[in-house]
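Entry for the shared binder. Reason: the reviewer on the internal report wants the predicted structure included alongside the sequence.
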Amino acid sequence: MKKSSLAVTAAVTSLVAFGASVMTTPALAAEKEKCYGVSKAGKNDCATKSSSCAGTSKEDNQKDAFVVVPKGLCERLVGGSTQSS
C-alpha cells in the first residue's frame, strides 16, 4: 500500500510543478525595454552618465537614468523615452 501512495504523491507533485512552470513561463518571456526619464531619484535600475550604479540617480525624471519596463509601456509614460538623452 505504501508504494502506491508514494507513486500517487509523486505524480501529484510533478503535475503541480509542471502547472506552476507553465503558468510562469509567459511572464518570464515577456520582452522588456529600458525607459529613460521616468525614474524617481534613487530608484533607477542601473548606472547613468553621472552615477556609478543602480539607485544613485540624483533627481526625479533624470534624462540619463532608466528603469526596465515591459516593452511598449515606455512610450505611454509621460516623459518616457527608449533613448538616453
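Summary line for the report: The CA atoms of residues 32 and 71 lie 5 Å apart.
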